[in-house]
Amino acid sequence: MYQAQAYSAAGATAPLAATSISRREPTERDVQIEILFCGICHSDLHAVRDEWNEFMPTIYPIVPGHEIVGRVTNVGSTVKKFKPGDLVGVGCLVDSDGTCHECEADLEQFCPNRILTYNSPDRHSGSVTYGGYSESVVVDERFVLRVPENFDLAAAAPLLCAGITTYSPLRHWGVTKGKKVGVVGLGGLGHMGVKIANALGAHVVVFTTSPNKTEDALRLGAHEVVVSRNADEMAKHAETFDFILDTVSAQHDINSYLDLLARDGNITLVGAPPEGLNVKAFSLIGGRRSLSGSPIGGLRETQEMLDFCGEHDITADVEVIPIQKINEAYDRLSNSDVKYRFSIDMASLKSQ
Ligand code: NAP
Ligand code: ZN
How many other CB atoms are there within 10 angstroms of residue 205's CB atom? Predict the structure, then answer.
Protein backbone atom coordinates (compact mmCIF):
# COMPACT_ATOMS: atom_id res chain seq x y z
CA MET A 1 0.00 0.00 0.00
CA TYR A 2 1.07 3.60 -0.47
CA GLN A 3 -0.38 6.90 0.72
CA ALA A 4 -2.10 9.29 -1.71
CA GLN A 5 -3.34 12.80 -1.08
CA ALA A 6 -7.10 13.18 -1.47
CA TYR A 7 -10.20 15.10 -0.38
CA SER A 8 -12.85 13.34 1.66
CA ALA A 9 -16.01 14.04 3.65
CA ALA A 10 -16.31 12.60 7.16
CA GLY A 11 -20.11 12.77 7.33
CA ALA A 12 -23.28 13.90 5.56
CA THR A 13 -23.00 17.46 6.82
CA ALA A 14 -19.20 17.70 6.97
CA PRO A 15 -17.31 19.74 4.38
CA LEU A 16 -14.81 18.00 2.12
CA ALA A 17 -11.28 18.35 3.50
CA ALA A 18 -7.72 17.30 2.71
CA THR A 19 -6.73 13.82 3.78
CA SER A 20 -4.38 10.97 2.97
CA ILE A 21 -5.68 7.57 1.81
CA SER A 22 -4.15 4.14 1.24
CA ARG A 23 -4.01 2.87 -2.32
CA ARG A 24 -2.79 -0.57 -3.35
CA GLU A 25 0.48 -1.03 -5.18
CA PRO A 26 -0.42 -2.12 -8.75
CA THR A 27 -1.00 -5.88 -9.07
CA GLU A 28 -0.06 -7.60 -12.34
CA ARG A 29 -3.37 -6.54 -13.99
CA ASP A 30 -3.43 -2.97 -12.69
CA VAL A 31 -2.76 0.42 -14.18
CA GLN A 32 -1.55 3.21 -11.89
CA ILE A 33 -2.73 6.63 -12.97
CA GLU A 34 -1.67 10.14 -11.99
CA ILE A 35 -4.99 11.99 -11.93
CA LEU A 36 -4.88 15.29 -13.84
CA PHE A 37 -8.56 16.33 -13.79
CA CYS A 38 -11.71 15.02 -12.13
CA GLY A 39 -15.21 16.28 -12.92
CA ILE A 40 -17.78 16.97 -10.19
CA CYS A 41 -20.97 15.01 -10.83
CA HIS A 42 -24.22 15.71 -8.99
CA SER A 43 -24.02 12.06 -7.91
CA ASP A 44 -20.92 13.01 -5.87
CA LEU A 45 -23.07 15.54 -4.04
CA HIS A 46 -25.96 13.08 -3.50
CA ALA A 47 -23.45 10.54 -2.15
CA VAL A 48 -21.51 12.92 0.11
CA ARG A 49 -24.77 14.12 1.66
CA ASP A 50 -26.08 10.54 1.90
CA GLU A 51 -29.21 11.53 -0.04
CA TRP A 52 -29.48 8.04 -1.57
CA ASN A 53 -29.33 6.37 1.82
CA GLU A 54 -32.34 4.18 1.03
CA PHE A 55 -30.63 2.62 -2.00
CA MET A 56 -26.89 3.13 -1.53
CA PRO A 57 -25.97 4.23 1.99
CA THR A 58 -22.75 6.21 2.13
CA ILE A 59 -19.82 4.84 4.05
CA TYR A 60 -17.65 7.56 5.60
CA PRO A 61 -15.12 8.87 5.02
CA ILE A 62 -16.03 9.12 1.34
CA VAL A 63 -13.66 10.20 -1.43
CA PRO A 64 -15.94 10.98 -4.38
CA GLY A 65 -15.06 11.45 -8.04
CA HIS A 66 -15.80 9.24 -11.07
CA GLU A 67 -14.92 11.48 -13.98
CA ILE A 68 -11.19 10.83 -14.00
CA VAL A 69 -8.62 11.72 -16.65
CA GLY A 70 -4.91 11.17 -16.13
CA ARG A 71 -1.59 9.74 -17.32
CA VAL A 72 -0.44 6.20 -16.76
CA THR A 73 2.59 6.13 -14.43
CA ASN A 74 3.01 2.40 -13.93
CA VAL A 75 1.52 -0.88 -15.22
CA GLY A 76 1.44 -4.45 -13.87
CA SER A 77 3.36 -7.26 -15.60
CA THR A 78 0.41 -8.67 -17.60
CA VAL A 79 -1.08 -5.34 -18.70
CA LYS A 80 -1.24 -5.26 -22.50
CA LYS A 81 -3.41 -2.27 -23.39
CA PHE A 82 -1.53 0.55 -21.63
CA LYS A 83 1.98 1.81 -20.98
CA PRO A 84 3.40 4.67 -18.89
CA GLY A 85 2.63 8.05 -20.45
CA ASP A 86 -0.71 7.00 -22.02
CA LEU A 87 -3.64 9.36 -21.60
CA VAL A 88 -6.48 7.45 -19.94
CA GLY A 89 -9.84 7.80 -18.23
CA VAL A 90 -11.74 6.02 -15.48
CA GLY A 91 -15.50 6.38 -15.03
CA CYS A 92 -17.97 5.02 -12.49
CA LEU A 93 -16.87 1.37 -12.59
CA VAL A 94 -13.59 -0.18 -11.43
CA ASP A 95 -14.44 -3.88 -11.30
CA SER A 96 -17.03 -6.56 -12.13
CA ASP A 97 -17.01 -10.36 -12.06
CA GLY A 98 -16.25 -10.61 -15.79
CA THR A 99 -18.11 -13.93 -16.05
CA CYS A 100 -21.85 -13.22 -15.76
CA HIS A 101 -24.10 -12.82 -18.81
CA GLU A 102 -24.09 -9.02 -18.35
CA CYS A 103 -20.29 -8.86 -18.44
CA GLU A 104 -20.24 -11.23 -21.40
CA ALA A 105 -22.60 -8.83 -23.18
CA ASP A 106 -20.26 -5.86 -22.41
CA LEU A 107 -22.88 -4.49 -20.00
CA GLU A 108 -20.73 -4.38 -16.86
CA GLN A 109 -22.99 -1.64 -15.43
CA PHE A 110 -25.58 -4.38 -14.76
CA CYS A 111 -23.17 -6.99 -13.33
CA PRO A 112 -24.47 -8.06 -9.90
CA ASN A 113 -20.86 -7.91 -8.67
CA ARG A 114 -19.92 -4.55 -10.19
CA ILE A 115 -17.70 -2.31 -8.09
CA LEU A 116 -18.19 1.42 -8.29
CA THR A 117 -15.26 3.82 -8.27
CA TYR A 118 -16.18 5.06 -4.79
CA ASN A 119 -18.32 3.91 -1.87
CA SER A 120 -18.21 0.24 -2.97
CA PRO A 121 -16.56 -2.71 -1.19
CA ASP A 122 -12.88 -2.85 -2.20
CA ARG A 123 -11.82 -6.50 -2.43
CA HIS A 124 -8.14 -5.52 -2.48
CA SER A 125 -8.07 -3.38 0.67
CA GLY A 126 -11.04 -4.90 2.51
CA SER A 127 -12.31 -1.35 2.96
CA VAL A 128 -14.26 0.79 0.45
CA THR A 129 -13.23 2.18 -2.90
CA TYR A 130 -12.00 5.76 -3.03
CA GLY A 131 -12.70 7.95 -6.06
CA GLY A 132 -10.95 10.54 -8.13
CA TYR A 133 -10.62 13.55 -5.80
CA SER A 134 -7.09 12.29 -5.33
CA GLU A 135 -3.61 12.52 -6.83
CA SER A 136 -3.60 8.95 -8.13
CA VAL A 137 -5.66 5.79 -8.54
CA VAL A 138 -4.93 2.12 -9.27
CA VAL A 139 -7.44 0.35 -11.52
CA ASP A 140 -7.73 -3.03 -13.25
CA GLU A 141 -6.86 -2.49 -16.91
CA ARG A 142 -10.30 -3.74 -18.02
CA PHE A 143 -11.80 -0.57 -16.50
CA VAL A 144 -9.34 1.90 -17.99
CA LEU A 145 -10.35 3.78 -21.14
CA ARG A 146 -8.23 5.31 -23.87
CA VAL A 147 -8.72 9.09 -24.08
CA PRO A 148 -8.19 10.72 -27.50
CA GLU A 149 -5.09 12.96 -27.45
CA ASN A 150 -6.90 15.84 -29.22
CA PHE A 151 -9.03 16.59 -26.14
CA ASP A 152 -8.67 19.46 -23.69
CA LEU A 153 -8.18 17.30 -20.61
CA ALA A 154 -10.18 19.37 -18.12
CA ALA A 155 -13.12 19.30 -20.54
CA ALA A 156 -12.72 15.61 -21.34
CA ALA A 157 -13.04 14.37 -17.74
CA PRO A 158 -16.87 14.79 -17.59
CA LEU A 159 -17.26 12.46 -20.56
CA LEU A 160 -16.45 9.56 -18.22
CA CYS A 161 -19.83 9.90 -16.47
CA ALA A 162 -21.95 12.70 -17.95
CA GLY A 163 -20.88 11.68 -21.48
CA ILE A 164 -21.60 7.96 -21.27
CA THR A 165 -24.75 8.37 -19.14
CA THR A 166 -26.35 10.44 -21.89
CA TYR A 167 -24.79 8.69 -24.91
CA SER A 168 -25.97 5.23 -23.84
CA PRO A 169 -29.74 5.88 -23.67
CA LEU A 170 -29.63 8.14 -26.74
CA ARG A 171 -28.17 5.20 -28.69
CA HIS A 172 -30.33 2.57 -27.00
CA TRP A 173 -33.54 4.42 -27.95
CA GLY A 174 -32.44 4.91 -31.55
CA VAL A 175 -31.92 8.67 -31.59
CA THR A 176 -30.87 9.66 -35.05
CA LYS A 177 -31.56 12.14 -37.85
CA GLY A 178 -35.25 12.98 -38.12
CA LYS A 179 -36.08 12.25 -34.45
CA LYS A 180 -37.41 14.94 -32.12
CA VAL A 181 -35.54 14.71 -28.82
CA GLY A 182 -36.06 16.59 -25.57
CA VAL A 183 -33.41 17.12 -22.91
CA VAL A 184 -34.79 18.13 -19.50
CA GLY A 185 -32.38 20.08 -17.26
CA LEU A 186 -29.35 21.90 -18.61
CA GLY A 187 -26.71 20.84 -16.11
CA GLY A 188 -23.69 18.56 -16.44
CA LEU A 189 -25.58 15.62 -17.95
CA GLY A 190 -28.07 17.77 -19.83
CA HIS A 191 -25.49 19.82 -21.71
CA MET A 192 -23.67 16.64 -22.79
CA GLY A 193 -27.01 15.17 -23.87
CA VAL A 194 -27.64 18.22 -26.05
CA LYS A 195 -24.23 18.02 -27.72
CA ILE A 196 -24.47 14.28 -28.36
CA ALA A 197 -28.11 14.29 -29.56
CA ASN A 198 -27.21 17.13 -31.93
CA ALA A 199 -24.21 15.18 -33.25
CA LEU A 200 -26.49 12.17 -33.80
CA GLY A 201 -28.58 14.40 -36.10
CA ALA A 202 -31.71 14.82 -33.95
CA HIS A 203 -33.90 17.90 -33.60
CA VAL A 204 -33.07 18.88 -30.02
CA VAL A 205 -35.34 20.77 -27.62
CA VAL A 206 -34.03 21.81 -24.20
CA PHE A 207 -36.37 22.15 -21.23
CA THR A 208 -34.96 24.37 -18.52
CA THR A 209 -36.17 26.06 -15.37
CA SER A 210 -33.46 28.71 -15.88
CA PRO A 211 -34.40 31.27 -18.55
CA ASN A 212 -30.85 32.65 -18.41
CA LYS A 213 -29.55 29.39 -19.92
CA THR A 214 -31.49 29.88 -23.20
CA GLU A 215 -28.64 31.37 -25.25
CA ASP A 216 -26.20 28.76 -24.00
CA ALA A 217 -28.61 25.96 -24.86
CA LEU A 218 -28.77 27.17 -28.47
CA ARG A 219 -24.98 27.53 -28.63
CA LEU A 220 -24.55 24.01 -27.23
CA GLY A 221 -26.64 22.56 -30.04
CA ALA A 222 -30.32 22.86 -29.11
CA HIS A 223 -32.67 23.86 -31.93
CA GLU A 224 -35.36 25.11 -29.53
CA VAL A 225 -35.50 26.00 -25.84
CA VAL A 226 -38.58 25.79 -23.63
CA VAL A 227 -38.74 27.40 -20.21
CA SER A 228 -40.56 24.58 -18.47
CA ARG A 229 -42.37 26.80 -15.95
CA ASN A 230 -44.33 28.30 -18.88
CA ALA A 231 -47.38 26.05 -19.45
CA ASP A 232 -48.24 27.63 -22.82
CA GLU A 233 -44.76 26.98 -24.19
CA MET A 234 -44.96 23.39 -22.94
CA ALA A 235 -48.40 22.86 -24.53
CA LYS A 236 -47.09 23.80 -27.98
CA HIS A 237 -45.03 20.59 -27.96
CA ALA A 238 -47.80 18.21 -26.83
CA GLU A 239 -47.58 14.69 -28.27
CA THR A 240 -44.63 15.42 -30.56
CA PHE A 241 -41.49 13.89 -29.05
CA ASP A 242 -39.93 10.57 -30.02
CA PHE A 243 -37.64 10.57 -27.00
CA ILE A 244 -36.98 12.69 -23.92
CA LEU A 245 -33.91 12.41 -21.71
CA ASP A 246 -34.67 13.58 -18.16
CA THR A 247 -31.52 14.65 -16.28
CA VAL A 248 -33.14 16.50 -13.39
CA SER A 249 -31.57 15.90 -9.98
CA ALA A 250 -34.58 16.89 -7.85
CA GLN A 251 -38.28 16.11 -7.66
CA HIS A 252 -40.32 17.54 -10.56
CA ASP A 253 -43.50 16.91 -12.51
CA ILE A 254 -42.68 14.05 -14.88
CA ASN A 255 -46.29 13.94 -16.16
CA SER A 256 -45.89 17.29 -17.89
CA TYR A 257 -43.12 15.66 -19.99
CA LEU A 258 -44.92 12.35 -20.55
CA ASP A 259 -47.73 14.40 -22.11
CA LEU A 260 -45.25 15.72 -24.69
CA LEU A 261 -44.43 12.25 -26.06
CA ALA A 262 -45.86 11.08 -29.38
CA ARG A 263 -47.39 7.61 -29.60
CA ASP A 264 -44.84 5.00 -28.45
CA GLY A 265 -42.48 7.72 -27.30
CA ASN A 266 -40.14 7.13 -24.40
CA ILE A 267 -38.80 9.17 -21.52
CA THR A 268 -35.62 7.87 -19.96
CA LEU A 269 -34.65 9.01 -16.50
CA VAL A 270 -30.97 9.43 -15.91
CA GLY A 271 -31.46 12.03 -13.19
CA ALA A 272 -31.83 10.33 -9.81
CA PRO A 273 -33.93 12.52 -7.46
CA PRO A 274 -33.70 10.92 -4.01
CA GLU A 275 -37.42 11.50 -3.36
CA GLY A 276 -38.67 9.69 -6.49
CA LEU A 277 -41.39 10.87 -8.89
CA ASN A 278 -45.17 10.66 -9.10
CA VAL A 279 -46.46 9.13 -12.34
CA LYS A 280 -50.05 9.46 -13.55
CA ALA A 281 -51.27 6.24 -15.19
CA PHE A 282 -53.12 8.15 -17.89
CA SER A 283 -50.00 10.04 -18.94
CA LEU A 284 -48.59 6.66 -19.99
CA ILE A 285 -51.63 4.73 -21.17
CA GLY A 286 -53.02 7.18 -23.72
CA GLY A 287 -50.15 7.16 -26.18
CA ARG A 288 -48.73 3.71 -25.29
CA ARG A 289 -45.85 5.72 -23.88
CA SER A 290 -43.04 4.34 -21.79
CA LEU A 291 -40.91 5.56 -18.93
CA SER A 292 -37.55 3.95 -18.27
CA GLY A 293 -34.21 4.57 -16.65
CA SER A 294 -30.59 4.08 -17.55
CA PRO A 295 -27.37 3.77 -15.52
CA ILE A 296 -24.02 4.94 -17.00
CA GLY A 297 -22.81 2.45 -19.65
CA GLY A 298 -20.53 -0.54 -20.14
CA LEU A 299 -16.84 -0.33 -20.94
CA ARG A 300 -17.17 -1.10 -24.65
CA GLU A 301 -19.81 1.58 -25.08
CA THR A 302 -17.83 4.07 -22.97
CA GLN A 303 -14.86 3.63 -25.30
CA GLU A 304 -17.21 4.00 -28.29
CA MET A 305 -18.55 7.25 -26.77
CA LEU A 306 -15.03 8.62 -26.21
CA ASP A 307 -14.11 7.82 -29.81
CA PHE A 308 -17.40 9.33 -31.06
CA CYS A 309 -16.73 12.50 -29.05
CA GLY A 310 -13.14 12.57 -30.37
CA GLU A 311 -14.42 12.41 -33.96
CA HIS A 312 -17.09 15.07 -33.38
CA ASP A 313 -14.85 17.28 -31.23
CA ILE A 314 -17.26 17.05 -28.29
CA THR A 315 -16.16 17.74 -24.71
CA ALA A 316 -17.86 19.36 -21.74
CA ASP A 317 -18.08 23.09 -21.08
CA VAL A 318 -16.18 23.31 -17.82
CA GLU A 319 -15.30 25.68 -15.02
CA VAL A 320 -11.90 24.54 -13.85
CA ILE A 321 -11.37 24.89 -10.08
CA PRO A 322 -8.60 24.12 -7.62
CA ILE A 323 -9.62 21.45 -5.13
CA GLN A 324 -9.57 24.02 -2.33
CA LYS A 325 -12.78 25.48 -3.88
CA ILE A 326 -14.65 22.19 -3.68
CA ASN A 327 -17.17 23.12 -0.99
CA GLU A 328 -18.09 26.34 -2.78
CA ALA A 329 -18.54 24.30 -5.97
CA TYR A 330 -20.89 21.88 -4.17
CA ASP A 331 -23.02 24.78 -2.92
CA ARG A 332 -23.24 26.17 -6.43
CA LEU A 333 -24.07 22.74 -7.88
CA SER A 334 -26.98 22.35 -5.48
CA ASN A 335 -28.30 25.71 -6.75
CA SER A 336 -28.03 24.72 -10.47
CA ASP A 337 -25.33 27.39 -10.76
CA VAL A 338 -22.65 25.80 -12.91
CA LYS A 339 -21.86 26.22 -16.60
CA TYR A 340 -21.89 23.35 -17.11
CA ARG A 341 -19.50 21.12 -15.19
CA PHE A 342 -16.86 21.77 -12.57
CA SER A 343 -13.56 20.09 -13.36
CA ILE A 344 -10.97 19.91 -10.58
CA ASP A 345 -7.38 20.64 -11.58
CA MET A 346 -5.70 17.99 -9.49
CA ALA A 347 -2.31 19.75 -9.61
CA SER A 348 -3.86 22.03 -6.95
CA LEU A 349 -3.67 19.16 -4.43
CA LYS A 350 0.08 19.70 -4.27
CA SER A 351 -0.27 23.36 -3.27
CA GLN A 352 -1.84 22.76 0.14
P1 NAP B 1 -26.57 19.13 -12.40
O2 NAP B 1 -25.38 19.58 -13.15
O3 NAP B 1 -26.83 19.68 -11.05
O4 NAP B 1 -27.84 19.35 -13.35
C5 NAP B 1 -29.15 19.10 -12.94
C6 NAP B 1 -30.07 20.12 -13.63
O7 NAP B 1 -31.42 19.78 -13.29
C8 NAP B 1 -29.90 21.53 -13.16
O9 NAP B 1 -28.87 22.22 -13.80
C10 NAP B 1 -31.26 22.14 -13.47
O11 NAP B 1 -31.31 22.47 -14.85
C12 NAP B 1 -32.21 20.96 -13.25
N13 NAP B 1 -32.84 21.06 -11.94
C14 NAP B 1 -32.22 21.07 -10.71
N15 NAP B 1 -33.13 21.15 -9.73
C16 NAP B 1 -34.35 21.17 -10.34
C17 NAP B 1 -35.70 21.25 -9.85
N18 NAP B 1 -35.97 21.31 -8.54
N19 NAP B 1 -36.71 21.24 -10.76
C20 NAP B 1 -36.44 21.19 -12.08
N21 NAP B 1 -35.19 21.13 -12.60
C22 NAP B 1 -34.17 21.14 -11.73
O23 NAP B 1 -26.52 17.55 -12.17
P24 NAP B 1 -25.89 16.39 -13.11
O25 NAP B 1 -24.51 16.12 -12.65
O26 NAP B 1 -26.19 16.68 -14.52
O27 NAP B 1 -26.75 15.13 -12.61
C28 NAP B 1 -28.15 15.13 -12.79
C29 NAP B 1 -28.76 13.94 -12.11
O30 NAP B 1 -28.33 12.74 -12.79
C31 NAP B 1 -28.35 13.73 -10.65
O32 NAP B 1 -29.47 13.27 -9.92
C33 NAP B 1 -27.29 12.68 -10.73
O34 NAP B 1 -27.12 11.93 -9.54
C35 NAP B 1 -27.83 11.82 -11.84
N36 NAP B 1 -26.86 10.95 -12.49
C37 NAP B 1 -27.30 9.74 -12.90
C38 NAP B 1 -26.45 8.90 -13.58
C39 NAP B 1 -26.96 7.59 -14.09
O40 NAP B 1 -26.16 6.70 -14.30
N41 NAP B 1 -28.24 7.47 -14.31
C42 NAP B 1 -25.13 9.29 -13.82
C43 NAP B 1 -24.72 10.54 -13.40
C44 NAP B 1 -25.59 11.38 -12.74
P45 NAP B 1 -32.07 23.81 -15.37
O46 NAP B 1 -31.41 24.96 -14.64
O47 NAP B 1 -31.79 23.79 -16.83
O48 NAP B 1 -33.51 23.63 -15.05
ZN1 ZN C 1 -21.61 10.83 -12.29
Answer: 23
